[in-house]
DNA sequence: CAACTAACTTGACAATGTAAAGATAGACGT
DNA sequence: ACGTCTATCTTTACATTGTCAAGTTAGTTG
């Protein structure tokens, strides 16, 4: 099955090869033909699995997002309270993208994420990490017995998300080392 | 001088044409050859002014950043206090990029901004808008008579910047309409 | 006025995305 | 078991693009 005419699992192999190339030489140097070559298939083979380059890229994004979500959920699972979980999420958000900044640019850089959302029916409406934050935030309100209007909740969520995302953005773009105070659980995200 | 062999001011014309193309059809469709065609010169003419495509793009970024800084400084100039000025900056940051989201992706999307900074000796160390915020923030501390350590100041600045940048990022990516509460000066950025 | 040089043109090449047409091999019904 | 079907892959071809090398033009300078 290694060098047969039919690859067997080309679709996944293409995604993996794409991730490898991005990690090694960045997104700019990711081309359909290189990905195909990496899998030892002809340059047009990917068109059996993806309608165009963008669809492959979207598939890669989904794969990376899955990986990201695994780390997020793993760290959340270890937390006793929702408050801890939210802080943990912030920490993972920063460490994950500090560890591989290329992913950040790749995921959030070019295209608007809306396109990515719409292509993934799985993501019903929210971006999975954001949906997780939302769940934890609602839990947090319950735990603390806090009552907030829907609008207030939305604003809080945007604030939290904006700050964490913005910090990751700056960290990835400017190479700022900002493990920040969030290693210290005393730091409060919720004002 | 319109159709003479020597264009006269091709460099600036290329930058303007680049901005026009980005506004009309996005960054992806910006090619050296289209830019050249837009200026009615041959496809290799840009190489008299830029060593490669990236250098042209950096020049365009600088041009857009200048435009951005003009708006920021204009709005800051109208403010009586530094506190107002900081809030005004936040508002301009959001409105400027909400008005033309393509600029946001173009400026902060692909490459790390470090490269852009290093190519512009004018930007000594800080990104001009950030440098402006820093000035306003220090002024704010003076006005209020607040004493903070250098590290505390840095953290405050990162917080403010992260949140505003993150919100702009989300607004531009997800199309979220988030003029937010910042139209209301009561909203506090400094915690 | 001759030499120089920056600005531009022309022609070429390799890399790339993509379409069209053909080849292959496994699955499926009879 | 055998023919058909169809998803998968190859081959060929083409337009777009970034970039280079060599030539051309025209203004500038000695």
What is the percentage of strand-forming residues of chain A? under 5%
The helix/strand series of chain A, from N terminus to C terminus, equals HHHHHHHH
Largest sheet of chain A: none
Radius of gyration of chain A: 19 Å
Count of runs of 4 or more consecutive helical residues of chain A:
8
Largest interface: A-B, 32 and 32 residues
CATH class of the largest domain in chain A, please? Mainly Alpha
Provide the number of structural domains of chain A: 2
The N- to C-terminal Cα distance of chain A equals 58 Å
Mean pLDDT of chain A: 84
Just name the CATH architecture of the largest domain in chain A. Orthogonal Bundle
Structural class of chain A: mainly alpha
Assembly annotation: homodimer
Model regions low in confidence, pLDDT < 50 over at least 5 residues of chain A: 177-191
State the total count of DSSP E strands of chain A: 0
CATH fold assignment of the largest domain in chain A: Tetracycline Repressor, domain 2
Given the C-alpha coordinates, what overall shape of chain A results? elongated
Structural account:
Two copies of one chain form a homodimer. Chain A is an all-alpha fold and 191 residues long. Chain A folds into two domains: 42 residues, Arc Repressor Mutant, subunit A, CATH 1.10.10; 111 residues, Orthogonal Bundle (Tetracycline Repressor, domain 2). The longest helix of chain A is centred in the middle third of the chain and has 25 residues. The radius of gyration of chain A is 19 Å and the shape is elongated. The first copy, chain A, binds a DNA duplex (30 and 30 nucleotides) through helix 2.
């Amino acid at each position: 099955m290694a060098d047969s005419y039919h690859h067997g699992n080309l679709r996944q192999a293409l995604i993996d090869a794409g991730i490898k190339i991005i990690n090694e030489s960045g997104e700019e140097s990711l081309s359909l033909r290189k990905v195909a070559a990496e899998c030892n298939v002809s340059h047009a083979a990917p068109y059996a699995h993806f309608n165009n380059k963008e669809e492959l890229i979207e598939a890669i994004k989904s794969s990376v997002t899955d990986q990201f979500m695994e780390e997020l959920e793993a760290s959340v699972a270890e937390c006793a309270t929702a408050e801890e979980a939210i802080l943990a999420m912030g920490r993972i958000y920063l460490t994950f993208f500090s560890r591989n900044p290329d992913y950040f640019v790749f995921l959030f850089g070019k295209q608007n994420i809306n396109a990515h959302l719409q292509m993934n029916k799985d993501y019903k409406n929210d971006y999975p990490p954001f949906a997780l934050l939302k769940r934890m935030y609602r839990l947090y309100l319950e735990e603390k017995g806090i009552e907030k209007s829907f609008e207030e909740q939305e604003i809080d969520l945007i604030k939290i998300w904006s700050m964490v995302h913005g910090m990751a953005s700056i960290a990835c773009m400017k190479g700022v080392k900002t493990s920040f105070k969030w290693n210290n659980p005393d730091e409060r995200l919720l004002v």
